[in-house]
Write a structure and sequence with these properties.
The structure is a single chain. Strands 2, 4, 5, 6, 9, 10 and 11 form a seven-stranded mixed sheet that branches. A four-stranded antiparallel sheet has the order 1-3-8-7, with no helix packed on it. The chain has 125 residues and is an all-beta fold. The model has no long low-confidence stretch (mean pLDDT 93). A hairpin with a 5-residue loop joins β5 and β6. The chain is built from no helices and eleven strands.
């Protein structure tokens, strides 16, 4: 059974940075994409970044140049480095995984097969 657990959320002032981490376990192999999506209060969930099994990354336009998705060498831990944060980035951030992932693109939240419980990121002005 695939388990997804996020950590690293918190509160920061505008212009600051945070790094989210995500442990993914229980996956048996094959093409596999991992990513992050978020949900701000009163808004729909939106994809933030995706990395495929070959390390190809995709980002939402709103975070390009500020956020970076990476993974450790064993592909068990996923990271989201978030720089130059703004209050618009305030949201509950979810780590997610998608099996049988053949296309390197930004996946929508509902397209993922597994997700964690989320970690809160709050950016104050």
């Amino acid at each position: 059974q695939v388990q997804v657990t996020e950590s690293g959320g918190g509160s920061v002032q505008a212009g600051g940075a945070l790094r989210l981490s995500c442990e993914i376990s229980g996956y048996s192999g094959g093409s596999f994409c991992r990513g992050w999506f978020r949900q701000a209060p009163g808004k729909e969930r939106e994809g933030v970044a995706t990395i495929d099994h070959e390390g190809v990354t995709s980002y939402a336009e709103s975070v390009k140049g500020r956020f970076s998705i990476t993974e450790d060498n064993h592909k068990n831990t996923l990271f989201l480095q978030m720089d130059k944060l703004s209050p618009d980035d305030t949201a509950l951030y979810y780590c997610a995984a998608k099996s049988r992932c053949a296309v390197a693109r930004l996946y929508k939240p509902f397209e993922y097969d597994y997700r964690g419980q989320g970690t809160q990121v709050t950016v104050s002005s």
